[in-house]
Amino acid sequence: MLQAGLQTALRMIYPPQCLACGGLVDQEHGLCAACFAETPFVTGLVCDLCGVPLPGVSEDRVQCDDCMAIGRPWIWGRAPLRYDGVARKLVLALKHGDRHDIVDTAADWMVGSVPQPLASDTVVVPVPLHLTRLLKRRYNQSALLAQALARKLDLQFCPDALRRHRRTASLDGKSRAARFAEVADAITHTPRGAQHLKNRPVLLIDDVMTSGATLAACALACHTAQSREICVMVLARVAKAA
Ligand SMILES: [Zn+2]
Ligand SMILES: [Zn+2]
After folding, report:
1. Local mean pLDDT, 10-residue blocks, the chain (242 residues)
2. Minimum-distance ligand to the CA of 239?
3. Are residues 39 and 88 in contact, defined by beta-carbon separation less than 8 angstroms?
4. Which ligand is nearest to the CA of 48?
5. Ligand nearest to the CA of 16
């Protein structure tokens, strides 16, 4: 009762705002109608491994040409958003703008994109940042997402299972082969990872998937720690509209 009163009072002082444009909205943690309409949610047929939207319909799980050519060291991958428009704006605000208020809604969208039930012993692991980048940004946006996701799915969260021991150059603008080569041996499991990953399924979390090179390096590090099957969930997938 007291809490409800406090919430009402807080709403009067801080009315709920749209996560993307700051305009007033009815509910906490929401988007206004205009931003919602401009947000590229992934719907319909997607690649089972990387979540990229695909044309057509199918009853079966399908893979895109890229995933068939590259092969992915995980069993499924999904993203609730295509990295474009409002989705791109939200990801950048979360990554560089200290906008931690986006995390809870983003994690809800990610939970909604999980294609099949996860085993209860699954451990949720974020893609690690290199220490110097973490100190500069002060937080790892992927760890914030992973923590929220683990809480919502009632799974164990292990923020320090993996480590980026070599600082990698920005992958922006690099070819796919160069991206895979750049991060291939930059990520390893930690002693805590060795303890928590062994014989456990893993849900790997990142904010964005572009080539999938970083996630592949993380998945290989989990396999080195003798994890079981790995699944991948990102907030936004870089892809052309289907
Ligand atoms: Zn808005
Ligand atoms: Zn794919």
Report:
1. 67 80 84 93 96 93 94 96 96 92 96 97 96 86 97 97 86 82 89 96 97 95 97 94 55
2. 2
3. no
4. 2
5. 1
Under 8 Å between Cβ of 48 and 203: no
- Beta-strand relationship, 123-126 and 81-82: unpaired
For ligand 1, a single-atom ion, the residues with CB < 5 A are 18, 20-21, 23, 32, 35
Report residue 8 as tokens.
């009402």
Domains observed in the chain? 1-37 (no CATH), 39-237 (3.40.50.2020)
| pLDDT at res. 144 | 97
Alpha carbon of 130 to those of 85, 142, 169, 236: distances in Å? 28, 13, 11, 21
* CA separation for the pair 77, 114 (Å, rounded): 9
